[in-house]
Amino acid sequence: xxxxxxxxxxxxxxILGEEDLCAITTSFVEQLTQQLTDLATYCTQAExxxxxRIAHSLKGGxxxxxxxxxxxxxxxLERYARAGEAEQVNVAMTTLPEVANQTVAALRExxxxxxxxxx
Length: 119
Known about the structure:
Elements: H1 6-16, H2 18-44, H3 48-64, H4 68-82, H5 86-109
């Protein structure tokens, strides 16, 4: 599976420069960690409106960075939450953290995330 769209990241690198892009990816990963924690909590409580809101935000943030697999996984979660399909939400939540971890690993591996960034 392709976790990152290199064209998007290369374009961002060209526009922003390495330092600013690394600052953005670091901020994204910090936010992602919090979003995953919040999603797990809201899913457990069947708070579908909050789940949809966070998934929507994650979908956009991931998409802006070219993290297409993560954006797609968040989009699916958002769709299920908005449709009130609690069972599908739980299924989507079983794969989302793994996709997130693989995305972060790919960002780090390709040098878009400084080694010091904590996940």
